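TA notes, week 10

Several of you asked for a full example with nothing omitted. So below is the full record: structure tokens for the whole chain, then the designed sequence directly under it. When grading your own attempts, check the secondary structure regions first.
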């Protein structure tokens, strides 16, 4: 049952990725607007992960899981309604709620299984999430190619409904756990601040970088996020433990995760659009959404491979070099895309190399955080890291659209080829900075328990780290 929840979350969250050009063409909107079908899910996920984690941290976990699946189901229904772009965006936003289900599924495993079975179950859930994403990309492309992209959401709705019914029947109660209040003010201000900031980042090409609406969104969004940070530092039960950022290792790791999330989505979002750009533009590959989905498969599979290779790599290189090595892999992938994107097979290779880079970077990150904080703060510290990386993904998605829009001639549908060079260079700069920051993370072996570090690495396979958000329960 838990595997089904993680699998459906992964598949549904990956549905929008290969469809951006198709959405732009179907609804006659700009690529910047169509990009919001991906960005909105990431934005919702950034807010939902800590909120659902807090709601499910106690006796309400079962109803939270069920109602979250109901929201995802409704999101699939809304997105499947043809002819209304606003309904698609609303639906994708509701689907993003599913990203918060991963920690809840892992928390169920930890609370209702023995230590040995819980570890293996969490690792299986993590791998299932990656496999689900890798399966969701080509499945989305195939269905969209033969039946139209709305059929993807119809299928997702059916699968979500099956999992919802099973969750009602199977998910156990957590009534024996103590409850904690939800920081509603923190959740609302985080969502409002991020939304305004992302609107400013993504709309510069359409509104104008000096336009009043853009400046207003940027200023108000920054002020709201600053107010949110002050509130979280003072709240008794904050949704994000910002106090942990006083630890230099945690702060550096979170900054690294934020930059890596931005850089990762800059590449993946750009590649999706590039592969589907018509040949008559003079540079595009003119492939279908199905091929675009397949291009993302090496990325997903290579990230799983990197996670499996991590124990071997940590045996022959210093641990503080693993994350910089991952960043170097991703820089190599971006350089390959920058100079060799004229052939489809090179794009496949580039995405595979990028997957290795992400796998090494994100798989090693929990160990650094675990080594830097006391046992009772591990779950909170890794929860903060999860939020920063999800926010980075949302920013990267919006930033990719912004850069390409800047290289699009007014009235034209597709950007110049130089736009993709610009996104590659931006990604290279971000990943170089990521590697340099990773070199600065002090690794201190403060805890003798190797088991917890190994668990952190296992959970990172999905890039979610969600289960570590719950791991502090055993230490409290």
């Amino acid at each position: 049952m838990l595997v089904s929840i993680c699998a459906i979350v992964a598949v549904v969250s990956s549905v929008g990725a290969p469809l951006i050009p198709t959405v732009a063409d179907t609804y006659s909107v700009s690529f910047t607007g169509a990009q919001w079908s991906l960005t909105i899910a990431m934005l919702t996920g950034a807010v939902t992960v800590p909120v659902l984690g807090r709601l499910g941290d106690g006796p309400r976990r079962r109803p939270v899981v069920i109602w979250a699946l109901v929201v995802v189901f409704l999101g699939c229904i809304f997105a499947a309604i043809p002819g209304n772009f606003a309904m698609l965006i609303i639906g994708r936003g509701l689907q993003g709620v599913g990203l918060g289900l991963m920690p809840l599924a892992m928390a169920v495993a930890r609370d209702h299984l023995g230590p040995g079975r819980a570890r293996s179950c969490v690792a299986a859930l993590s791998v299932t999430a990656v496999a689900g994403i890798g399966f969701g990309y080509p499945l989305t492309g195939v269905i969209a190619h033969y039946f139209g992209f709305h059929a993807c959401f119809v299928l997702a709705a059916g699968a979500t409904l099956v999992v919802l019914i099973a969750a009602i029947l199977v998910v156990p109660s957590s009534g024996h756990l103590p409850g904690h209040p939800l920081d509603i003010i923190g959740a609302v201000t985080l969502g409002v601040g991020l939304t305004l900031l992302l609107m400013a980042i993504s709309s510069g090409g359409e509104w104008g970088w000096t336009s009043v609406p853009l400046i207003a969104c940027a200023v108000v969004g920054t002020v709201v996020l600053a107010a949110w940070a002050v509130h979280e530092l003072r709240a008794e039960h904050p949704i994000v433990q910002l106090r942990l950022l006083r630890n230099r290792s945690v702060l550096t790791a979170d900054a690294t995760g934020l930059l890596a999330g931005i850089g990762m989505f800059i590449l993946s979002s750009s590649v999706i659009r590039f592969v589907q750009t018509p040949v008559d533009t003079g540079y595009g590959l003119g492939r279908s959404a199905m091929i675009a989905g397949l291009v993302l498969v090496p990325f997903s599979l290579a990230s799983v491979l990197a996670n499996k290779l991590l124990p071997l790599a940590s045996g022959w290189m210093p641990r503080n070099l693993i994350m910089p090595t991952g960043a170097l892999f991703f820089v190599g992938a971006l350089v390959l895309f920058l100079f060799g994107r004229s052939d489809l097979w090179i794009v496949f290779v580039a995405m595979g190399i990028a997957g290795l880079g992400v796998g090494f970077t994100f798989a090693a990150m929990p160990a650094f955080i675990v080594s830097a904080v006391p046992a009772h703060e591990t779950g909170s510290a890794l929860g903060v890291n999860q939020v920063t990386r999800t926010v980075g993904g949302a920013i990267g998605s919006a930033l990719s659209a912004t850069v390409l829009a800047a290289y699009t001639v007014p009235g034209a549908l597709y950007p110049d080829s130089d736009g993709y060079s610009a996104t590659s260079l931006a990604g290279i700069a971000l990943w170089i900075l990521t590697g340099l920051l990773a070199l600065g993370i002090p690794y201190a072996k403060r805890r003798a328990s190797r088991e917890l570090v190994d668990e952190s690495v296992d959970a990172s396979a999905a890039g979610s780290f969600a289960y570590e958000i719950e791991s502090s329960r055993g230490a409290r």
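The CA atoms of residues 212 and 238 lie 33 Å apart. Use that as a sanity check on your answer.
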